[in-house]
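Note to self: keep these together.
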Amino acid sequence: MIYLDYQATTPLAPEAREAMLYWLDGGFANPHSAHRPGRAAAAAVAHARDQVAGLLPPGGRVIFTSGATEAINLAILGSGARRIAVSAIEHSAVLDTARASGAVVDVVPVSAGGLVSAEAEIAPGTDLVCVMQVNNEIGTIQPVAALAERAHAAGALFLCDAVQGVGKIAAPEGADMIAVSAHKLYGPKGIGALWVRDGLELAPLIHGGGQEGGLRSGTLSPALCAGFGAAAALCQRLGESDGQLVDKLWKTARDLLPDWTLNGDAGRRWHGNLNLRRDGLDVARLMSHLRDMAFSAGSACASGSGRPSHVLTALGLSPQQAKSSIRIGFGRYTDPGEFAEALQRIDAAAAAQTSG
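Structure:
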């Protein structure tokens, strides 16, 4: 199987797996227990917290969660915001949580390239602005520092979903809260974190034993924390070489797929995300033809509903164009030769469909 879906999840780094093994076996103690094994588990959690914090700005604290979705829920609902501004291309974890909060929700449009204007209008009385760092579907990188500054000038907090960016590019600047996920940076599934600026108080969503500074009750998994921490530390060490490989693969893809149209701005984007369209393409048929490859339908239809992606339609694409799009994701463990072969096969299969 050729894996080309790094936006959905990344392979688990061997170093992260190794860091988890002891805590899955002999180190099974509860990290919230006061005895010696418990204190050892707590030390492992604290070390992992420091490692994850190393990817994020200074001046904040890391709250472990079950994933980025929980982190986003904690940020939005815990803030008590009554008016929220969200970009039109936010992940559903942001959009649906904002709508479910009971707050007034203002949707900030994006350009045809999938970018929020750095001078986007923020309505008076807005309490929270939510703009992601790197879009999960098209890879565009938003001007989060400028938008955070604009939010603060309007008296609002700024939440950044940095799931697709942290560990790959510099952490977003100026945010009050940052949501991240371990399995998008070569760590395990089932754990994420919310970075919260020092001095900012949130209301907890989960009540009980008061773990995680009273913000997120429940027993932490030392194994998941250790895996997350090891993956984060590895991203710091390998950031430069990871970026060089991604840039090389991006160039290969652009050279091999000249007849495809790029969705999203060509300049302000993460190169590990390639969202392309080809008029008349039946993506389901393409994926069925290439069953030994794992890539994504760029339209990202919601739960099989057949609806086109809200991200692609926000760019001004028609439903037909959105549904003729694919997303190819790659990164640290992508083999360049295998990658080139896969792209040539995708291109040939698409051409066979659309040439007649």
